[in-house]
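pasting YCII-related domain-containing protein for the record, 122 residues
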Amino acid sequence: MSTDSTYLAVFLSNKTSPRWRAWYAMSDDERRAKDKEGLDALVAWDEKHRDVIVYQGGPLGKTKRTSPDGIADVVNELTVFIVVRAASHEAAAKLFENHPHFTIFPCDAVDVMPLLSGPPET
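structre below
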């Protein structure tokens, strides 16, 4: 697989930010309505970009970090990932402008980086 035009996008969220505090402060009914709005927008975004989505990715769970000190539970801001194809790094980043994760949901940002290698050739 050529990686010349393949990019990893990682969605970041600080779950202690004011945006998340406001999200958690919503009533259950408000949050359900916002969830529906956001999920509908995500489906529309995916459909609009289906030709450039290489791997759908998905939400990320709790993190365990392995280091020389052993294994520990840690908290980071990584929340969702997806792999896309684009003509350039800039074009890949532009795919995520006004993305539902931060226009509807309280996600903070999307980091987009080129994949420098792919799976081994068989």
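The longest helix spans residues 28-48.
The two ends are 10 Å apart (CA to CA).
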